[in-house]
Design a protein that fits this description.
about 325 residues; six-stranded parallel beta sheet; about 25% strand; Rossmann fold; alpha/beta; Quinone Oxidoreductase, Chain A, domain 1; seven-stranded mixed beta sheet
Amino acid sequence: MAGFKALLATKSDDGQSVDWVEMTEDDLMEGDVTIRVTHSTLNYKDGLAITGKAPIIRKWPMIPGVDLAGVVESSKSAEFKKGDSVTVNGWGLSETHYGGYAQMARVNADWVVPIPKQFNCSDAMAIGTAGYTAMLCVLALEDHDLKPDSGPVLVTGASGGVGSVAIAVLSKLGYEVVASTGRTEEEDYLKYLGASEIVDRSEFSGKPSMLGKERWAGAIDSVGSTTLANVLSQTKYYGCVAACGLAQGPDLPTSVMPFILRGITLQGVESIMVPKPRRVQAWERLAKDLEVGKLRAMAVAHPLEDVLELAPQIVEGKVRGRVVFNVS
């Protein structure tokens, strides 16, 4: 049986280590769809897993990578056939099930989503969990009946993966998008994606007031902590904030005031265990509402070997947009 390369994380009394190893299909975990992986990507969670900055990996040894895209090699499911272009996001990849940093993967059919015809496998990983989560956030705002004429929508962590895709999608849908970033050198990039205004993240770093001046009809936040608390205090009556990240921290130093005096909704958005119909809906909307040109402009291609160098950088907030790894 032909071998393939994989990045394997192991743990011993001396700590965690990650190394390139040779594996065969017999080494893969159980599942009914085997995928020849062509592309993967780098998310904040991947950075945490590889660096060991957070206990992402819960079963050892583990192939990291919460995303993968590729071509079906074999399938026991009637839903997929050899040659289909597919993607997998979450479902315990990199935590309890071998992930995308390998040239082969075997997963459950329920986890697999067909890649819309508008995208190729590289595009699917330019989207990845970050972009797919951004679309889930947009859907959450729409579920709350937020419309383009409701007022400006703030996107925090704007130059990151979630922020970049969120700005591009919201702009395409006609929203006035305000981008919050600490990287002022990215102003041209963010305006190209569709941001109408750039605000420095320092505006959200001070001690939050219980209620601030109304500024935002809605927001997509991937930062958490003090930033999210300040965003909530500045959200308009009956607005909605979709929160999906904790780059600044997991705490939330706020009060009940925005919720009980302005009727604001804080909508949590997770991407790992989302039911398949919602996943398919998100990918269909991405195919409709994310311009491929902008998607490709926010992506930078790297060989998979670069993941060990880039993982610490994404944890430190030094990676712009989306990283696409050529796995094959």
